[in-house]
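Researcher: We plan to redesign the surface later, but first we want a full-length starting point. Tokens attached.
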């Protein structure tokens, strides 16, 4: 299911365009987070400033405040989205301040995400792109209409320069601040359509390499406010002891020793655990460790052992008698494969992985009567309002969410469990804010992991080695069944996030994708690139295997399969040149992989070496060519590719969560292995945009090709040893070498 809205002309109504002073003041009053551009505390917007719409406020001194509707978790989105408004508004970027949107889905919801406020899925730029450009254009037309009256000239004689309306024939001009000082919102509003948008040749900011990210200065000077930094008068601290197995509950609580800890004020029984409230973080941690809880033993997750289940999933994928939900069907793949000269049939497996964000889960809440206020590093303000209201016994409109900077998200902070903790505990001390900070052990053990999954790929080849049919079966639990049940049900039991990326643009006559959901009880969630992170692993490795069987060069074979896909061919040809694909390297191998996920075309080549005695893989360098369609911020795109490649290398080589009888075995970074700085590859990125194409998603586009490029490099280096199980631990690599 494509959640990306099509770009179209749109008229914005006065009702949807206006915003109340109080609504905007919510965001601006939050302090340094609100003024991302300067990193300094700000006051609420003063009455009398010109608010032409819900997105833009213009002060008499010419300062322009632009709302950032998506949340900043290091991906640079609070620069990218306001920049779209500023471009069409013809604003002087040096006079722009960025303001985090308040929790108001009706006004600031993402059109690409069912109209809710949720940041993730590489949907922010794609979802808001047309809306924000039209908003900027309409604001510019509005300023020109007001200026025409002030100058007593026809509006058709006016043009704009950065933050200025100009009447060329008379030489007169008005600064946006001068207009704002006297302006009222015209009624009716000037209407903006696609025809009013700037042509590419007049862009000042889109595509520029000179625009710095607005969130960086405050992060450098220390004034940035992350969720964990929130400090409020009278604030208490909270910690929650959760059961070792998901979905158990406390049957008996012995809190005598916990209550003796100095500074502890409350012990709060919860439906899913036990909360501690105290005057210091240290007191709550100590008291939590002293709790003696007898847990129930009824959770079906107690039967969950990931290693055993993965074997079951693989068997299910192989059993053609077990049918799932059709995710895609183009031609009769089964018949084509049945008549093929050669059949390649393989399994690809992926373990659970944790998010392990730099900033652990945390939230601060205050409950006063039926009102709730939350300060949190959340990816989903709309969901936060709903869950908090349910806990507090109120309605979502009475829940105010102050979204802070996020110290990493990767989908984890789209969940609300850590926020629910804070609301439950704040109810126990009504009127006082309570900040809950998860320990790293809690963060790892009680994460919402990427799904455990097995993929069975069966491909039929004709006598010349050409693909005639491709069947792809994906066995995994559903994320949407838990997080968005209506979406899951409307799709007939298909989860397009879990299977995302399985539909490719290679020229294959018959292509079938099937999803076989396994409901085993463990809550799984969104993780960096989600389904694409493993579906492209299987696809790109199988394509390489077919090329080897055919005796074809992997790059040339992909180019043939993509002969009608110029953007795809371009990134593959570009990255092959960057890596000097044809040049031999002693002791090292090159592997290539490609992805068109999230609307962006990305090709990568990885250079690796292998210690055959230990099974350790070393990734020396990764080259990357990325075509995002419109490259709004090229430098930012390069940085995001580096992020995706670094994370992609770590998750392919190291990251692994094991669950035994419902209990997570890993607990901190001594047992959950992340990539280290010394292990990160050198990375070279080329941004090769096609501006006439729709804008693509960037946040997660860099990760999917990395793992298969590494696996394919190992195969070329070893004469065909295939790695088919994420992660490529040394033990698994040695076993593959010895097989």
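Model: Full-length starting sequence:
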């Amino acid at each position: 299911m494509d959640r990306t809205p099509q770009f179209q002309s749109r008229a914005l109504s006065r009702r949807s365009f206006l915003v109340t002073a109080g609504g905007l003041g919510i965001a601006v009053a939050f302090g340094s987070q609100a003024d991302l551009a300067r990193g300094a505390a700000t006051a609420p917007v003063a009455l009398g400033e010109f608010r032409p719409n819900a997105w833009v406020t213009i002060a008499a001194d010419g300062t322009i405040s632009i709302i950032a509707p998506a949340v900043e978790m290091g991906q640079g989105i609070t620069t990218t989205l306001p920049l779209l408004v500023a471009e069409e508004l013809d604003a002087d970027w040096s006079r722009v301040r960025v303001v985090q949107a308040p929790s108001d889905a009706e006004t600031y919801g993402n059109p690409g995400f069912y109209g809710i406020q949720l940041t993730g899925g590489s949907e922010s730029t794609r979802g808001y792109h047309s809306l924000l450009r039209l908003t900027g254009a309409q604001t510019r037309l509005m300023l020109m209409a007001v200026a025409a009256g002030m100058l007593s000239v026809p509006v058709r004689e006016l043009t704009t320069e950065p933050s200025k309306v100009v009447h060329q024939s008379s030489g007169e001009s008005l600064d946006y601040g001068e207009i704002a000082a006297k302006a009222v919102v015209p009624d009716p509003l000037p209407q903006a359509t696609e025809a009013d948008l700037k042509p590419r040749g007049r862009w000042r900011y889109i595509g520029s390499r000179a625009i710095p990210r607005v969130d960086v200065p405050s992060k450098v000077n220390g004034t940035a406010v992350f969720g964990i930094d929130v400090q409020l008068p009278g604030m208490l601290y909270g910690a929650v002891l959760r059961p070792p197995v998901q979905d158990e509950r406390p049957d008996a609580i012995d809190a005598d020793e916990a209550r003796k800890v100095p500074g502890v004020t409350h012990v709060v029984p919860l439906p899913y655990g036990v909360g501690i409230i105290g005057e210091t973080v240290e007191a709550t941690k100590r008291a939590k460790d002293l709790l003696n809880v007898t847990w129930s033993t009824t959770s079906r997750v107690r039967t969950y052992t990931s290693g055993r289940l993965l074997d079951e999933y693989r068997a299910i994928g192989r059993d053609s008698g077990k049918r799932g939900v059709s995710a895609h069907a183009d031609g009769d793949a089964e018949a084509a494969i049945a008549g093929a000269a050669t059949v390649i049939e393989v399994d690809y497996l992926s373990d659970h992985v944790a998010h392990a964000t730099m900033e652990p889960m945390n939230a601060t809440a205050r409950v006063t009567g039926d009102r709730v206020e939350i300060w949190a590093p959340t990816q989903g303000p709309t969901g936060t309002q709903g869950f908090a209201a349910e806990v507090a016994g109120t309605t979502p409109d009475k829940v105010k969410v102050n979204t802070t900077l996020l110290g990493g998200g990767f989908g984890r902070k789209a969940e609300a469990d850590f926020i629910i903790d804070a609301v439950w505990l704040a109810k126990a001390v009504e009127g006082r804010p309570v900040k809950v900070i998860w320990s790293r052990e809690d963060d790892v053990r009680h994460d919402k992991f990427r799904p455990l999954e097995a993929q069975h790929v069966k491909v039929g080849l004709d006598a010349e080695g050409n693909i005639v049919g491709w069947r792809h079966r994906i066995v995994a639990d559903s994320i949407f069944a838990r997080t968005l049940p209506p979406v899951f049900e409307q799709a007939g039991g298909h989860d397009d996030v879990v299977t995302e990326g399985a539909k490719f643009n290679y020229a294959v006559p018959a292509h079938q994708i099937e999803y076989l959901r396994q409901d085993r009880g463990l809550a799984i969630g969104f993780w960096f690139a989600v389904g694409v992170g493993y579906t492209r692993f299987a696809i790109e490795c199988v394509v390489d295997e077919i090329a080897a069987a055919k005796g074809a060069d992997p790059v040339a074979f992909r180019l043939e399969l993509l002969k009608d896909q110029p953007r795809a061919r371009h990134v593959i040809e570009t990255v092959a040149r960057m890596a000097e694909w044809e040049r031999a390297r002693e002791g090292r191998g090159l592997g290539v992989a490609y992805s068109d996920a999230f609307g962006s075309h990305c090709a990568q080549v990885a250079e690796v070496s292998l210690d055959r005695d230990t099974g350790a893989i070393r990734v020396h360098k990764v080259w990357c060519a990325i075509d995002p369609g419109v490259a709004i911020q090229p430098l930012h795109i390069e940085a995001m590719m580096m992020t995706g490649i670094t994370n992609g290398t770590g998750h392919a080589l190291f990251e692994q969560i094991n669950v035994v009888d419902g209990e997570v075995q890993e607990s901190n970074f001594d047992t959950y292995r992340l990539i280290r700085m010394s292990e990160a590859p050198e990375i070279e990125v080329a941004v090769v945009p096609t501006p006439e194409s729709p804008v693509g998603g960037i946040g997660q586009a860099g990760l999917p090709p990395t793992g298969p490029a590494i696996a394919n490099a190992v195969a070329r280096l070893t004469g065909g040893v295939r790695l088919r199980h994420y992660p490529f631990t040394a033990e698994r690599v040695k076993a593959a070498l010895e097989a």
